[in-house]
Amino acid sequence: GYAIGSLLKDTGNVTYDPGFMNTANTKSAITYIDGEAGILRYRGYPIEQLAEKSSFLEVAYLLIHGELPTETELEEFDQRIRMHTMLHEDLKDFFNGFPRDAHPMPVLSSAVSALSTWYQDSLDPFNPEHVEVATIRLLAKVPVIAAYAHKKSMGQPMLYPDNSMNLVENFMRLCFAVPAEPYELDPDVVKALDQLLILHADHEQNCSTATVRMVGSADANLFASVSAGVNALFGPAHGGANEAVLKMLRNIHAEGISPETFMEKVKNKEDGVRLMGFGHRVYKNYDPRAKIIKQTAHDILEKTGGDELLEIAMKLEEKALADDYFIERKLYPNVDFYTGLIYKAMGFPEKMFTVLFAIGRLPGWIAQWREMITDPATKIGRPRQVYTGAAERNYPN
Ligand code: ACO
User: What family, per the record (predicted)?
Assistant: First the structure.
């Protein structure tokens, strides 16, 4: 490592801070986290209260506009979103260009980026009307694009949105209904998905959100910036962890390893094995989202007939919470430890897990981009570096 004193002498007045561990790039009034105490609030409201009493759409409004909507405001917001769910017919051809086994995350990011070619009337970052309509278009169309990416991977026909339904109901139907068969929504499952989306809606300056702000700081439009956020979220160290937890649980089950043996492997750092879904850069306490999700996992899995993998997850958690290795390092379950099990019980394939995260995080990305673009203190994101290459030398004659 560098000592700060010698760094300043060598490089002039710059701070060397890989991963921006100690550098605030912005002031923000959107989300508050206290990692030591395990506290998360959106616009001041505790996440536990929002998860219990609010809806995903209301939380989206809260994050983006700063205050909870009145009943009329929420109704208008909902109606506007319903009116924008249709994708341009030509955009449907776009999905045919990808291989059948394409991962839905790059399909989603490509389609979101492509929205700027169809909606050239809403690209000016400094025109509030453009920003407003781009916001509504993204909230309405991202779940539809996500459902189409899923249908494409299944080789099934894509249905048109049914605007008598709200955003979450419509998304479930577009993912799971097939034209020839009746489809009935389960209100408990819709409620559980709505709640999971609330819990993912914002998390201050995480990697994907910081990316959305960085791209937007060059005055790139909202579609381009959100598309970059989707790509950042695709990384296994970020949104991809929910998929990794399920893979871990499946392997433990398939190989018949006992939770005790697996924990020994983790603690001995054999082959770099980690207990996926545990630990967090900011939370050094039980992730407040994981507490709520654990209960939801029990409720939904009880309804859908249980899952042996849930038993394994619970045993691993119980062992970890009582183990000195985890206690000393302050490793607790994070948001991803139980989500995969719920998504699986709902019928989503593993490839869709990170897409569900993206749908949830969308209002946060939009809110943070809008805060960035209207903040007079915003400057184009342009970090400095500490040059370590060759000194000046001459090209050989
Ligand atoms: N299992 C076992 N040991 C762990 C785990 C884990 N899940 N997480 C951290 N540790 C250990 C490390 O080995 C290290 O031990 P050491 O001090 O003996 O070397 C110590 O705890 C500190 O770990 P770091 O990797 O330095 O912590 P960091 O803050 O950089 O990493 C991270 C946080 C990436 C989340 C890490 O805990 C991890 O890899 N967890 C598993 C993957 C995961 O669940 N990611 C989802 C994050 S949440 C999200 O993105 C929504």
Answer: Belongs to the citrate synthase family.
- Is residue 332 within 6 Å of ligand 1 at its C-beta? no
Report the distance separating Cα 210 and Cα 96, nearest Å.
32
Phi, psi of 181 (to 5 degrees): -125, 145
Provide the residue type at 359 as one letter.
I
Is the Cβ atom of 360 under 6 angstroms away from ligand 1?
no
Which of 280, 299, 324, 375 is flagged as catalytic?
280
- Per the CB < 8 A criterion, the answer to whether 296 and 340 are in contact is no
The CB density around residue 53, as the number of other CB atoms within 10 Å, is 9
Predicted local confidence at residue 221, as pLDDT: 98
Q: Tell whether the model's pLDDT for residue 35 goes beyond 60.
A: yes
The ipTM (two decimal places) reads 0.94
Q: Give 341-363 pLDDT, tens digit per residue.
A: 999 999 999 999 999 999 999 99
Judge whether 202 counts as a catalytic residue: no
What are the residues whose beta carbons fall under 8 Å from the beta carbon of 322, sequence distance 6 or more?
A: none
- Round to whole Å and give the CA distance between 288 and 198: 13
* Predicted confidence band of residue 12 (pLDDT cuts 50, 70, 90): low
Task: Please work out whether the CB of residue 317 comes within 6 Å of at least one atom of ligand 1.
Answer: no
Question: Is the CB of residue 36 less than 8 Å from the CB of residue 285?
Answer: yes
Residue 336 known to be catalytic: yes
DSSP string, 265-302: HHHTTGGG---TTB--SS-SS--HHHHHHHHHHHHHHH
pLDDT at residue 170 greater than cutoff 70 = yes
pLDDT at residue 179, rounded to an integer: 86
d(CA 231, CA 229): 5
DSSP of 91-146: HHHHHHTS-TT--HHHHHHHHHHHHHHH-GGG--TT-HHHHHHHHHHHHHHHHHHH
Q: Measure the CA–CA gap between 377 and 205, rounded to whole angstroms.
A: 17
